[in-house]
Amino acid sequence: MNSIPLVWYLLLSAILFTTGAAGVVTRRNAIIIFMSIELMLNAVNLTLAAFSAFLGNADGQILIFFVMTVAAAESAVGLAIVIALFRNKQTVNVNEINILKW
Amino acid sequence: MLALCAVATAVVTVTRRNPIAAALWLVAHFGTLGALYLTLNAQFIAIIQVLVYAGAIMVLVLFVIMLLNIALVEKTKHFFSIRGFFGVGAVVVLGLEICAIIISGTKQSPQSISPQAAQIGTVEYIGNQLFAHYGFPFEAISFVLLVAIIGAVMLAKKKVD
Cβ separation of B16 and A22 shorter than 8 Å? Predict the structure, then answer.
């Protein structure tokens, strides 16, 4: 049994979430924004796993299971949207995708 | 050590200009996260992390990057723009707030991994829990996947005219 305290896992998760958020805010490539969202989802999963282990309760791990399923569904739909956008606008730069603006 | 690897690969992922390099670094990041799950005695989660994320989702991402013909994807002109500066600033404030909340709650948090942790991470235990108590969410999530498949096909299909 290791002795890493819970706080370290939570802080690591916070740092990873922040990194993902920074990627979403600053990058302009739709695919990289998409990967940053995956990074944020994973950071939250790490929090759930840490609490699940420290509290001795499997609910957190079952929630991770569901989050991963939703992330898979989201990635399929998100990448389909990126493909459709690229087909229409020939770009994945989100600055040039403004067809909802008028 | 694993934490450093995880943070480093995450930072490299969001700073690469080439999406393929970013995707490969993200695979490395998912691998280190899988190892972190193992330190938390979550074997099942570690396995599906590697299978689903590093396997399925990243293959999908790389596939799309190849489909989109990377030569046409223009590079970001200047990385350190004024907007990027403010964006990173706001996000750093967010991160500090989260860290402050975590540290302020340290007193009440459990200090070591629960003794049952080793047995609740197994496929057997999670499967029992999932099908004994979470039957409806399980069916609902399968429906979500079905809708996502149909939606993805409809979105990515070429217009028939």
Answer: no
The distance of B25 to chain A (nearest Cα, Å) reads 11
Domains and CATH numbers, chain A: 29-93 (1.10.287.3510)
B157-160 long-range CB contacts below 8 Å, 24 or more apart? B158/A87
Of 3.40.50.920, 1.10.1660.10, 3.40.50.620, 1.20.120.1200, which CATH number belongs to B1-72?
1.20.120.1200
Closest CB to A56 among B7, B117, B154: B117
B89/A contact by beta carbon, under 8 A: no
- Compute the nearest-CA separation of B39 from chain A (Å): 8
CA distance A70 to B146: 11
Place of tokens 């990377």: B70
Inter-axis angle of helices A59-89 and A30-55, nearest 10: 180
Q: Find, among A48, A62, A66, A74, the residue nearest to B140 by Cα.
A: A66
Rounded to two decimals, the pTM is 0.83
Dihedral sign, Cα of residue B94, residue A18, residue A65, residue B38? negative
> Which residues have CB under 8 Å from B26's CB, separation 6+?
A35, A38, A39, B9, B13, B58, B61
- ∠ at Cα B51 (B26, A64), nearest 5°? 85
**Tens-digit pLDDT profile for chain A (102 aa)?**
456 777 888 888 888 888 888 888 887 788 888 888 998 999 999 899 888 888 888 888 889 989 999 999 998 898 888 888 888 777 777 777 777 766
Contact B152, A80 (CB under 8 A): yes
